[in-house]
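> example.struct
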């Protein structure tokens, strides 16, 4: 859904420009945006969760740079506040102004290796209770391209 693949001599490019372009921030009346601690009403919460779903889809498919943002804003999805909504809207701004594709370069098929990276932190999330972890597994060649 909304994914474009292009293969050429340089490698394979994956992008979701059209999908990302249609992701828009949630707008509330300015008076409703003043109280950061106000819990969103049912309709606002539903909008928050729908936007979060789009951001998660994008993060998992073609935008690993927003993965942590998607994760951290999802922690509030059961009872989001205006402050959480502002954070989610900042992710939308990041999407609109950030990278728009991933290029998997052509690799030397005679020197392939699997590389894995991971990181984790204890109690590092906004709620000061949840912990985060991430990992990246890629196929690389002797030049380190992956």
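> example.seq
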């Amino acid at each position: 859904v909304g994914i474009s693949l292009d293969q050429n001599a340089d490698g394979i490019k994956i992008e979701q420009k059209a999908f990302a372009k249609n992701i828009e921030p949630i707008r509330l009346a300015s008076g409703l945006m003043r109280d950061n601690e106000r819990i969103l009403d049912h309709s606002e919460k539903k909008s928050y969760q729908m936007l979060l779903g789009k951001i998660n889809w994008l993060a998992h498919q073609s935008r690993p740079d927003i993965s942590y943002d998607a994760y951290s804003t999802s922690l509030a999805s059961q009872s989001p506040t205006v402050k959480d909504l502002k954070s989610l809207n900042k992710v939308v701004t990041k999407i609109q102004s950030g990278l728009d594709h991933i290029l998997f370069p052509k690799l030397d098929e005679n020197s392939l290796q699997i590389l894995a990276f991971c990181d984790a932190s204890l109690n590092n999330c906004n709620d000061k209770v949840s912990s985060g972890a991430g990992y990246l597994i890629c196929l690389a060649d002797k030049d380190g391209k992956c």
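> remarks
The first helix runs from residue 17 to 21.
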